[in-house]
Each structure stands twice: as structure tokens, then as C-alpha cells.
Design a protein that fits this description.
The protein has 720 residues and is α+β, with helices and mostly antiparallel strands. 49% of the residues lie in helices and 16% in strands. It has five domains: 1-92, Alpha-Beta Plaits; 104-225, no CATH class; 234-326, Calcium-transporting ATPase, cytoplasmic transduction domain A (Distorted Sandwich), CATH 2.70.150.10; 418-446 and 550-660, HAD superfamily/HAD-like (Rossmann fold, 3-Layer(aba) Sandwich), CATH 3.40.50; 449-546, Calcium-transporting ATPase, cytoplasmic domain N (3-Layer(aba) Sandwich). The strands form five sheets. Strands 14-26-25-24-15-22-23 form a seven-stranded mixed β-sheet, with helices on both faces. A six-stranded antiparallel β-sheet has the order 6-5-7-13-8-11, with no helix packed on it. It starts with 20 loop residues before the first helix and ends in a 7-residue tail after the last helix.
Length: 720
């Protein structure tokens, strides 16, 4: 489904954008993925507020979530009401979503602020010392600096201390071990110098070191934690209650308390809450979220139904045939969790560099300490040399090399309408060697459109019936009539037969619109979606529908192929529908009727450097398992959560551009590593020879950090 734009989109009230946790507490929560503007806010909120028992309703447009203050039993009525005004909704579990709150990011930001504030104050005190303060004045300023620096280091250095100790306790070294030693030794040496009235103290060096390292840590964290995990979103998407049928009456029952053999009622507009089989009623089910199939499927008594499919036309009774933990939706959730765990094992350039860097730093600092002690026998001077080496080699430049580039790249992509959720995705995107696309809603517009050559009289009659139905094909007929200026026929006595179609009367003759089998035409043949119209005794006339390709799909495929990437299409739709589209777009590799688990296996079979682009729930596992994944903004919440990048502009041509920019970013990262390496080759010998005090080392370290940041900013001027 495409995200529309309208003038109202630029005038969204601020109170619709953010909601506090207290405002959300105790309310029903729904995902409404097809809202896109301020007009949608009014439609959704007014519709829900009109229901008896609803106290308040507020739609958060940025999250596409609806918060309703009502009794829990109102959930199904709210979903049905939204369906009646053209918006599909799914209940979400707020408790599950709250588990994904980014508390780590808040803690890092707080520590960064404290370190910056303390650093600036201590530097102001140091200016007086550098200006020539001596004796008691100098000692007094040093003690004030110590009073500021000691608690600040103890608080702000916790992330490095904890990580470094965890590595040492396992007999390993990581980047945080030399960082922690540099901070602690610089602080301890400064405190010692202050206590004996020494001339130099380096509290400002310890604090500036901590500040720059926290800045790199926070930038890296923000690019990695922009969104919750896909498994969390999928878990929240599961329906929590169902309408249990007992003794001819229905009552809301938590899914967890249902058992095999229970019967549940699924009303039109509701999602099927459990896997089972139909025991009463008939309807059309929208299975596109699970399978990618464009055409709704007709179900009757005896047909199997699955969790997450949407009931479109008639009420059905479903007998539970399995456990909640065995549902298709739950299986997809588990596939996503496993795939995410596999992808999280990716080791970035910075982590690989740290594995080599950390032991070398310790050896050099220790060698400097031992060498100077053997030469001079002066423990204090030897320790100063070791601390200077640790500070000057402290990996600020190395720690900023990747986050600085990632921040610049993320900003550049955001300007182009691409949201990057995981910073390591930039590194991974630069290495992709194949691109895989879903079909429905990704390469196509995601909804059926009536063929342009439809006879106007046929369209008029069909629209006269279609106005009484919420079926997707009926909506397409009405939209076509409106767009082409065709008058809608005044059909009377309209009734909808679930799983079959619509019937009524026009000019005294019966009029029917629906499935081929119902009108006696026989099973549908050919690749397109069809509905049939019969007026009186006239022969049925076919109405052909297509899911047209997106305007930018062919250009995107061609750009990827020009960049040397083979392009594949994996779809759950039928082969006779997928093949013509693939040919029109220039895709030679196409596989149809591929289920979610099979998609994941196919992604894995293509190799470890595959890009996956998709928008449906059936794509979530494959996207989590892919080396890097992209979702359009119109994708459902769970799929957007699976993706590493989101196309806010819904412009597919940004994908090849993002790949080219990511390759530039990788080149900048390697350049920054080179800068850090050259800096160390020059600075370390100076520190070892005693020409760099801890303060001079801190200034040199800061200079290298600024240099790699400036190099990263070159990406903002990229014309890619």
C-alpha cells in the first residue's frame, strides 16, 4: 500500500506526534499502518470516539499507533469500526512494546552531558594554572579540579570500566581495557601530584578523554538502536483475545487460555486469532501479510485458516486445531528471532581493529614504563611516560572513526529519504553482491487496479454493486469509476454473499458481481485477478484487475544490474502473476509461491552478502536473515522493525544510491583508520622518548579525533 501525500501532512498538530508514557498507560493499543495525514487522524479518532464506552482516542501519526481509553472488551468493536471507515487495525500488546525502551541510550546521554560539563569547568580552572598561577593558588585550583573530576570519572567512566573488567575476567582484552587504564591512571597520577603540591595535574586530560570516548559510544549506540527488534514487534502484533463461543453466546477470552477444540467467532474486519478450521459460515480472507497472495481467498466450512489473516466479508466460526505456540505467526516470530541472532554476529571494522589494537597499546605502554625505570630508576617519571603513552594511543580517533562516518552517512541518507536503523548496516550494504525483492507492495503498488479497457457501462453497473462492499476489489471498482468520471448505476436490493460476491437489481433485472465459480464460468485461468459481472440472462463479463508495478521499479532494477548486482524476485504469489511482472521489470531470476520459511532458506542459499527488500509479514524472517534489508515506509510495523533501512520517501531508486554512498562511507572509515595509524606512528615515539606530557598527549589525542570527524563530514557533500 502506497503512502499518500496531501497538504494536511505538513500541518500535523504537535500533540499528535508524541505521547508520554503516562498518557499511554492503561489504554488499548492498536497498529493502524495505513494512516498518512492529518485527515486520517480526524477520521480514525472520530470513528472510535463515536462508539459507546470509548472515553478517548488519540492517534500517534509518527508511530501509526492508536491509543484508546476504553474497556478491554471493546477491542473487537474498535477494529470493526475502523474497518467500516476504511482503516485496517491490529491490536498491539503495550507491555511487550515497553520492554524495548532504550534505557541504555538515555544513560549514555546523561553520562556524556555530565562529562562535558565537568570537562569545560576543569579546563577553565586549568587556564589559570597555564597562565602562571603558582604556590597555594595553583594547589587550590588543582584541588577544586580534583573535587570535580573524581566523582565525574567514577560516574561517567562506568561503561568503559564495566566492559574492560568483563573482558579481563574472561582472560581477554578489548578496546575498553586501555581506555579504562588511561582514564584511571591519568586521574590517579593527577591526584598524587596534587597531594604533594606538584606543578602538573591532568584532570582535564582524563575528562576530555572520557568525553570524546562517550561521544563515540553514544553515536554508535544511536545508529544501532534506532528501533526495537522485529521479534518484539511481531510479538506485540499477536492478537491477545478472541471471541469464545460457549452455549450459543460469545465472550472475550485471552488467547493463552484457549485450548484445542474451542470455537471462536471471527467477525468481518477482524484478524483470525488462532490457527484452526472453519466450522460455520463462509468468507473471503486476506492472506497477503502471510503469503503475499494478491487475491483474497474464499473459505468455507472445512477450510484451514491461520493466525494473522484478515476476515473481509462474512462472520465465520473457527475451531482451534493447534496450540497458540504452534501458530504460523508464532513460527514466523521464531524465525525472525533466530535470523536476527545470526545477523547480530556480524563484526564491524572497529571491532576487528580493536582486537589487534588493544594488546599492542598495553605492550607499548608497559615497555615505556619498564625502559624508563631501568634507565632512570625514577618510578614517578616512568609512570608519567606510561600514562602519556596510554593517553596518546587511547583509541579516541579509532573509536570515532566509525561512528563519525556513520553519523554523517545516516544524515546524508536521511536527506534523501532513507532512514538507517542500524549503523553496521552501512558497512554491510557496501559489501552486498545480490539483491532480492518481494513482489506485492514492494515492486508493485500493493493493491489491485481495474484494467483501463473496461467498458464504461460494465464499470457503471459493477460500481453500483461495489459501493455496498468493503472487499478490496470492490474498492478498486469504485475508485476506477470515480477516476474515469463514470456514473454509478442505481442498483437496489443489494446483498453480499460471503465468499461469493454481490447481488442486486437494476432496471428490474438481477445483477451479480463476484467469483467465476458462483456465476458458472468455471475456475479462473490466466495470470490476472478477475471478477465477473452478469446482468439478467446476459453472458457474464470479466473485469480484469492488475497489481501494477511501481513507476520506479524498472529503473531501480536496471541501476542495480548496472552496478553489477544480480536481481531476484521471491514472492508468495502465483507463478502466472509473478512471471509477466518480472519480465516487464527485467528480472531474470524469479521464484513464486514461496512461503516465509522457504524465503529465509533461499536467502541463506544465495550467500552471506544478500540484500533483501520487502514489505509484508511474510518477508520479516527473510529480511532478518539477509545480510542487510530494506523496507518501504508503507510496510507493516513488524517488517519495518526487521529492516536495517526504511525508505521514508517510498522511492526505490534510493536503494542503489544508498549502496553507492555506503561504499563511499566504507572508504572514509578506512581513511580514518589510516589517519589514526599515522597519528600513532608519529605520536607514540614522542611519548616514549618523554617529549609528551599527559596534557600534551591529551591535546594530541583530541586533535586526531577532530581530524577523523572532519574527514567523515566530507560525506555530507557527496553527490551520489
Amino acid at each position: 500500500m502506497s503512502v499518500a501525500s496531501c497538504p494536511a501532512c505538513v500541518a500535523i498538530p504537535e500533540d499528535q506526534i508524541e505521547m508520554t508514557a503516562s498518557e499511554q498507560a492503561g489504554k488499548l493499543l492498536f497498529s493502524v499502518p495505513d494512516v498518512h495525514c492529518a485527515g486520517c487522524i480526524g477520521t480514525v479518532e472520530n470513528a472510535v470516539k463515536s462508539l459507546p464506552g470509548v472515553r478517548d482516542a488519540r492517534l500517534n501519526l509518527s508511530l501509526k499507533r492508536l491509543f484508546v481509553d476504553a474497556d478491554p472488551v471493546m477491542g473487537d468493536a474498535i477494529i470493526a469500526k475502523l474497518a467500516s471507515v476504511g482503516h485496517l487495525a491490529q491490536p498491539l500488546d503495550e507491555t511487550t512494546l515497553e520492554n524495548g525502551v532504550d534505557r541504555e541510550g538515555r544513560r549514555l546521554l546523561m553520562r556524556l552531558g555530565v562529562a562535558g560539563f565537568a570537562m569545560m569547568n576543569v579546563m577553565l580552572l586549568s587556564v589559570s594554572v597555564w597562565a602562571g598561577a603558582e604556590g597555594e593558588t595553583r594547589n587550590f585550583l588543582h584541588w577544586i579540579s580534583a573535587a570535580i573530576a573524581m566523582p565525574t570519572v567514577a560516574f561517567t567512566g562506568v561503561p568503559f570500566f564495566v566492559s574492560g573488567w568483563a573482558a579481563l575476567s574472561k582472560g581477554k582484552l578489548n578496546m575498553d581495557v586501555p581506555i579504562s587504564l588511561a582514564i584511571l591512571l591519568a586521574t590517579a597520577l593527577s591526584l598524587y601530584e596534587t597531594s604533594i603540591g606538584g606543578e602538573d595535574a591532568y584532570f582535564d586530560a582524563a575528562l576530555s578523554l572520557t568525553f570524546f570516548l562517550l561521544l563515540g559510544r553514544y553515536l554508535n549506540h544511536r545508529t544501532r538502536m534506532a528501533a526495537r527488534s522485529a521479534a518484539l514487534e511481531l510479538a506485540a502484533l499477536e492478537t491477545k483475545t478472541a471471541l469464545l463461543i460457549e452455549n450459543g453466546e460469545t465472550r472475550a477470552m485471552p488467547i493463552a487460555e484457549l485450548k484445542r477444540g474451542d470455537r471462536v467467532l471471527v467477525q468481518p474486519g477482524m484478524a483470525v486469532p488462532v490457527d484452526g478450521r472453519v466450522v460455520a459460515g463462509s468468507s473471503d480472507l486476506d492472506k497477503s501479510l502471510l503469503t503475499g497472495e494478491t487475491l483474497p481467498e474464499s473459505v468455507d466450512v472445512g477450510a484451514g485458516v491461520f493466525t494473522g489473516t484478515l476476515n473481509l466479508t462474512g462472520p465465520i466460526e473457527v475451531e482451534i486445531t493447534g496450540d497458540a505456540d504452534d501458530s504460523v505467526l508464532r513460527q514466523i516470530t521464531e524465525l525472525v528471532s533466530l535470523a536476527e541472532a545470526a545477523k547480530s554476529r556480524y563484526t564491524g571494522l572497529a571491532e576487528r581493529a580493536a582486537g589487534i589494537y588493544a594488546p599492542v597499546v598495553h605492550l607499548v605502554a608497559f615497555a615505556g614504563f619498564v625502559g624508563w625505570y631501568l634507565i632512570t630508576g625514577d618510578m614517578r617519571h616512568s609512570l608519567n611516560i606510561a600514562v602519556a603513552v596510554l593517553i596518546i594511543t587511547c583509541p579516541c580517533a579509532l573509536g570515532l572513526a566509525v561512528p563519525a562516518v556513520m553519523t554523517a552517512t545516516v544524515s546524508r541518507l536521511f536527506q534523501a529519504g532513507v532512514l538507517v536503523k542500524d549503523g553496521s548496516a552501512i558497512e554491510r550494504l557496501a559489501q552486498v553482491n545480490a539483491a532480492v525483492f518481494d513482489k506485492t507492495g514492494t515492486l508493485t503498488k500493493g493493491h489491485a487496479e481495474l484494467a483501463e479497457d473496461t467498458d464504461p457501462q460494465v464499470l457503471s453497473l459493477a460500481a453500483g454493486l461495489a459501493g455496498a462492499s468493503a472487499h478490496p476489489l470492490s474498492k478498486s471498482v469504485l475508485a476506477a469509476a470515480k477516476a474515469r468520471g463514470v456514473d454509478v448505476a442505481g442498483v437496489t436490493d443489494i446483498t453480499e454473499l460471503a465468499g461469493k460476491g454481490l447481488q442486486g437489481r437494476y432496471e428490474g433485472r438481477p445483477l451479480r458481481l463476484g467469483r467465476a465459480e458462483w456465476l458458472g464460468v468455471g475456475p479462473q485461468t490466466g495470470g490476472g485477478v478477475q471478477s465477473w459481472l452478469q446482468w439478467g440472462d446476459d453472458a457474464p463479463v470479466a473485469l480484469a484487475f492488475t497489481d501494477p508495478p511501481r513507476e520506479d521499479a524498472r529503473a531501480t532494477v536496471q541501476e542495480l544490474k548496472n552496478d553489477g548486482l544480480p536481481v531476484y524476485m521471491l514472492t508468495g504469489d502465483r507463478a502466472e502473476v509473478a512471471a509477466p511482472l518480472a519480465e516487464a521489470l527485467g528480472i531474470e531470476n524469479v521464484e513464486a509461491q514461496v512461503l516465509p520459511e522457504a524465503k529465509l532458506r533461499r536467502i541463506e542459499a544465495l550467500g552471506d552478502k544478500t540484500l533483501m527488500v520487502g514489505d509484508g509479514l511474510n518477508d520479516a524472517a527473510a529480511m532478518s536473515g539477509a545480510f542487510v534489508s530494506v523496507a518501504p515506509a508503507s510496510a507493516i510495523d513488524a517488517t519495518r522493525a526487521s529492516a536495517d533501512l526504511i525508505l521514508l520517501s517510498n522511492d526505490l531508486t534510493q536503494i542503489p544510491r544508498a549502496i553507492r554512498l555506503s561504499r563511499q562511507a566504507r572508504a572514509r572509515i578506512l581513511e580514518n583508520f589510516t589517519i589514526a595509524g599515522v597519528y600513532n606512528l608519529v605520536a607514540v615515539p614522542l611519548a616514549l622518548l618523554g617529549y609528551a606530557s599527559p596534557l600534551a598527549a591529551a591535546i594530541a589525542m583530541s586533535s586526531s579525533s577532530i581530524l577523523v570527524s572532519l574527514n567523515a563530514l566530507r560525506l555530507l557533500r557527496s553527490k551520489t
